[in-house]
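Lecture 7 notes: from sequence to structure.

We start with a single chain of 137 residues. Read the sequence below before looking at the structure.
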Amino acid sequence: MIGNLVALVCGALFAAGACISGMVRPSKVLGFLDLGGSWDATLAVVMTTALAVHALAWRLARGRPRFGDCYPDAASTLIDHRLVGGAVLFGVGWGLAGFCPGPAIVSIVSGARASLVFVGAMMAAMLVYHRASDADG
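Now the structure, written as tokens:
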């Protein structure tokens, strides 16, 4: 019960931060990626602030989880074609559409066609990947 409440509060905080910072608007993200044009440093400020908050929270937690016995181990430390391919796919999607998956999901409540198309395409790609992974193993 408490875990679900914490997840809800964290999700709401993320959504509020994405909306307040404008990261749900592809124009903000594309402005950050436009190094040759009218560059918008807003995303760098958002990332720096998020990193500072995380570092402070980690310091206060002293490396101990508050809702569990220990943190899970990393799924893998291997840098393979799946990791690199996923990173490339993420970067290309981010650069073309101006959406990162988290803020895109937040932005679907606006009903904007671009966010609905992006999230739909993302879900379809996840389904294809899941089905292909099941067929392999």
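Residues 2-136 form one domain. Keep this in mind for problem set 3.
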